Amino acid sequence: MTPLRRHRMIKIVATLGPSSSSYEMIRALFEAGADVFRLNMSHGSHDEIAARHAIIRKVEADLGRPICILADLQGPKLRVGEFAEGAVELAEGQSFRLDLDDRPGDATRVTLPPPEIFKALEPGAGLLVNDGKIRLRVESCGADHAECTVIVGGTISNRKGVNVPDVVLPLAALSDKDRKDLEFVCELGVDWLALSFVQRASDVTEARELARGRAALLSKIEKPAAVNAFDEILDASDGIMVARGDLGVELPVQNVPPIQKRLVRRTRAAAKPVIVATQMLESMIESPMPTRAEVSDVATAIYEGADAIMLSAESAAGQYPIEAVSTMNNVAIEVESDPTYIDIIDSSRKADHKTIADGIVAAARELAEKTEIAAICCFSQSGTTAYLVARERPHVPIIMITPIRTVARRMSLVWGVHCETIENRVERFKKAVINAVRVARKYGFASETDQILVTAGIPFNQPGTTNILRVAPCAEHLIVQGEPE
């Protein structure tokens, strides 16, 4: 039996939670198609997070495949305080006060920490409560309060979120909780950190100093300020998540699809991974079948060339987590077999090759598409070569071989990349070719009559030295005997 491999290029991120915390369920999710598991630091204690992390690593060991873990920090999410009766009804046109008073709220007021928000507010600013279901307009404000008019009424209850789309808030990107969570998950050994409510590049820089290279940084784009500062944020980040939930609250909903397309293309051009997230199969929280609109939404992200698509509550708290992953997997396989998909991906490729490595991977992609090449295999210490090959979006699978397990795990998020670890560092190119052929044959990427492309850097084991490209036959006797130099 051929060992586990994916038959699609895009990756699937599944959030873990109450519905998906056992060994049996996490293993089933991976076997159904999940490539990355997300640990949401907004929910669950450190003990619960550590238990899920340990189970993922146990599944990884049992199945012999690297598994990527993404820890998603909560970020400075604004939330109202609690109400004396749990909830109140706000009517359109009434006055409502937000302040720093710790007393339980009522139909006229509620607390809204922290104090920095009131320093940034101005008359006329809009406030969105509970994902925009309630809308307030600031009439006047002081250092510790804001007098508002209810523009759109509704029920407001304990701890509902507040969005401030018109203002860049003077809040630290990392709260005290985030700093503690960051250190905790880095010590656990997660592969990626997702930063919530990023507003500026300096937010990423701060997190990078704390992470100290222990995890790659992925910035969530969910505020208008982040869209406006996107190029600077992208430069400072290792990857991007288009988090459409809060983005769709803070911006007119019709603005989100074109923003999604722009951000996906710009991130791909930078050779960095991009995830499209939020409400992709929302109905599958309670239904074993998605809506047609949801399937189209997932397909759109795949056609755009995103590296990964994400499940949130569908897999964390839903009734059908395995079905949700299987649905994403099946949609991806179907879309990627569509000739139109190939046309769209090819037409969106940016030919901006400035370095030798750029030229090598572009040549590999062109050779693979114009000749009988079964796969592109790259040896990498840091993952840089695999990032560059993935940016090209070739028509054949990408195999990345590395002696560093943390790199293999991290790269499991990247489009089209099948990661494999080897025990020892490769010192000679002949050995690299033999290893590449063995992996391609082992996982069914190539047969003995096929050829693969092998890219590497000479001298070996130095990041950023990709400078060689070789066509390698996969004949059995060459695996056993090795090729002549």
Gyration radius, to the nearest Å? 24 Å
Structural class: alpha/beta
Strand order of the largest sheet: 1-2-3-13-14-15-16-17
Instruction: Please give the share of residues in helix.
Output: 25-40%
Please indicate the percent range of residues in DSSP E strands (runs of 2 or more): 15-25%
> The biggest beta sheet, please?
8 strands, parallel, barrel
Average residue pLDDT: 92
Uncertain stretches: none
The name CATH uses for the topology of the largest domain is: TIM Barrel
- Tell me the total number of β-strands: 22
Question: How are the secondary structure elements laid out?
Answer:
Elements: E1 11-16, H1 23-32, E2 36-40, H2 46-63, E3 68-72, E4 78-79, E5 87-90, E6 95-99, E7 109-111, H3 116-120, E8 126-129, E9 134-142, E10 145-152, E11 154-157, E12 161-163, H4 176-188, E13 192-195, H5 201-211, E14 216-221, H6 224-228, H7 230-236, E15 239-243, H8 244-250, H9 256-269, E16 274-277, H10 292-303, E17 308-311, H11 313-316, H12 321-336, H13 339-347, H14 356-370, E18 376-379, H15 384-391, E19 398-402, H16 405-411, E20 417-421, H17 429-442, E21 451-457, E22 466-473, H18 476-481
Parallel strand pairs: 1-2, 1-17, 2-3, 3-13, 6-7, 13-14, 14-15, 15-16, 16-17, 18-19, 18-21, 19-20
Antiparallel strand pairs: 4-12, 5-11, 6-10, 8-9, 8-12, 9-10, 21-22
Helix pairs in contact: 1-12, 2-4, 5-7, 10-12
